[in-house]
Amino acid sequence: VTATREENGQSASATSATVNAVVEPKAVSEPTVKGTYTYTGTEQTVALAGIESCMTIASGNKATNTGSYEVVLTLDGNHKWADGSDGKVQWNIAKAKAEITVDPDPITVTYGEAVTLPTATTDFGTVTCDKAASDLVNAGTYTVTYSVAGTDNYDGDSKTVTVTINPKNITEADVALDGSLVYNGEEQTQQITVTDGITYEVTGNKATKAGKYELTVKGTGNYAGTITLDWEVAKATVTITADNKVIYIGEDIPVLTYKVSGLIGDDKLITDPTLTTNADENQAGSYTITAANAD
């Protein structure tokens, strides 16, 4: 800069000096992160609030995996970072959750019916199931667990579905008497036939004396319900045979006697038979002796 002094229109001695003018860069603050970020499985670009035209993103604004990242910004020559700023902006991608979607409604079937398990899906990873439909066969209540394992990028998840297999009721068509019994003085067991595969227990099927009885078949394990059947121990056959008698014309009819066969053990007749004959002691011939009313 040169300065000239004049006096009365005349130039006086001149004095010159040089002054340096310094233009400082404008101070600017670094941008801030807009929003939050969660793992999606694809590359994400961070959005910055307060970014100006003097700023250029050098690196660190794109990422895919969970973690902490740093955006590095540079300035043109006319700007500088304000105090406390260094042109480095921190941002994060948070872990996602691999949430499982599956129909949670309980499943109920009857033994012998097929079980169809629902299909489960998830946004991340692969869903596994701890049971297959082929494992769910016998009557009972099962808990089926669907799960997906966690990774560095997402937390795992699990969901359960309850499966109930009710026992199948037995019917009269499933059970029948097998054979008949006749009194023999010993305890006897009435046999039955049951549809193949049915598990059961039977009560009331043993007896010694002749008579009518009732047995009960109850389903067990994979089967339920009860069926009752009437059965019988028939009376044994007892034979009473009249003894033959011989008389001559004019003689009195003799005392009629008999023999008993078919009694078992110490069994005895409750009522002795009544013996009668149509014989005529005054007429030669063969006559019948009849035994009746024995018990």
* Proportion of strand residues: over 45%
Oligomer: single chain
Spatially, the strands of the biggest sheet line up as 16-21-19-18
Mean residue pLDDT: 92
Q: How many helical stretches?
A: 0
Span between N and C termini? Answer: 159 Å
SS class? mainly beta
Biggest pleated sheet: 4 strands, mixed
**How would you describe the shape?**
rod-shaped
Roughly how much helix do the residues carry, as a percent range?
under 10%
Number of strands: 35
Supply Rg: 56 Å
**Uncertain spans:** none
Give a topology summary.
Elements: E1 2-3, E2 6-7, E3 10-11, E4 15-16, E5 26-28, E6 32-34, E7 44-45, E8 47-49, E9 55-59, E10 62-63, E11 67-75, E12 79-81, E13 88-93, E14 96-97, E15 100-101, E16 107-110, E17 121-122, E18 128-129, E19 140-148, E20 154-155, E21 157-166, E22 168-169, E23 175-178, E24 181-182, E25 188-189, E26 191-194, E27 200-203, E28 206-207, E29 211-219, E30 223-224, E31 226-234, E32 239-242, E33 258-261, E34 274-277, E35 289-292
Parallel strand pairs: 5-12, 14-20, 16-21, 22-30, 24-31
Antiparallel strand pairs: 1-4, 2-3, 6-8, 7-10, 9-11, 11-13, 15-17, 18-19, 19-21, 23-26, 25-28, 27-29, 29-31, 32-33, 34-35
